[in-house]
Amino acid sequence: MGMIYCDYNATTPVDESVFELMRPFFCDHYGNASSRHQLGRIAKVAIEEARNKVANAIGVQPEQIIFTSGGTESNNLALKGFAGLIPVSRLVVSPIEHASVRVPAHELAWLGWELKQPRVNSDGVVDLEDMAQLLTGKCGLVSVMLANNETGVIQPVADVVKLAQKSGVLVHTDAVQAFGKMRVDFDLLGVDALSIAGHKIYGPKGVGALVIRKGVDLMPVLTGASHERGLRAGTENVAGIVGLGEACRLVIERMNIVETHLKECSGRLETGIEALGGVIFGRKASRVPNTSYFAFENIDGPVLAARLDDLGFCVATGSACSSGKTEPSPVLDAMGVPLHLARGAIRVSLGMHSTIADIEQFLSALNQCVSSLHRSAACA
Questions:
Q1: How does pLDDT run across 12-61, given as a tens digit for each residue?
Q2: Are 207 and 152 found together in one domain?
Q3: Are residues 232 and 260 in the same domain?
Q4: From 248, 321, 369, 379, active-site residue
Q5: N or C: which end of the chain has fewer CB within 10 A?
Q6: Does the annotation mark 321 as catalytic?
């Protein structure tokens, strides 16, 4: 049996059509987009064509797109960029955010910002009443992700925006795990900034974008040149940007088909997990259709993941950016999941190449591993 990939939230394979569109910009059209000669102009045109594709996919104007090196830079640019131009006050960040939001939030706290976290319920959904309290008074900025990278739980971002607008608070959302799995419309959300990354949508690694509302100002984090309207200095990754643009075009083209397919596959997966006695985190909440985060009583997550890896299944024990750590997930901690269960957490995230046959093979392997580990625990 070959490898079966079940970790699409960590990264996705580059789509063949994306790669083919990128290919000429490595060796043939290698010009710097800032150069005035022919090769430079070709690169510049390609970047602007990609900007149009990204803008169209999110429902904004091209000038609202700032290209970055990925989701982490986009999140840092949003938080630090906003914070650099408004008075130091309160910063509200949900406790289920990715580390690329949590860490810069703590860095701002070291600079004097009052960092507050709203409660989340047992399914990992932000408590809007608690959020409303935190957004009153001297609050300048809030960041709440659109879909959680571990549980897949969708957050009420549009409702947070309504609360924030009453006090003039800026709102950023990390949409890295949402975009490509659900419909993302910038204006319907009402946020001031939104982050995406290419490698989560069958595009290349090392490229992403921050979408900003018209009339909103940011202080650049990377300085030294006038690229991206002066908001992100550095020679553009032309091939990567071209790939991101094409991947965004494909998101819109394939949305209905991919969404239906993922729902079918994840439905079979979760029925099987629960039949084996697994507990699915965020089960009662609205989630993106590809993500299942679960655990079994008295089974260690990293051990189970290693057993599955030996059998050819690629799964995760949480966020790919922190999977090397042994501590339980901060997301599960915020949800109030007991420590003994949180230590067993496994994330399976499906993609457009996943099949029902893959799911059946995975469930068979999962049953084998869980049964073996339970027997071992009983004999210990």
A1: 999 999 999 999 999 999 999 999 999 999 999 999 999 999 999 999 99
A2: yes
A3: no
A4: 321
A5: C
A6: yes
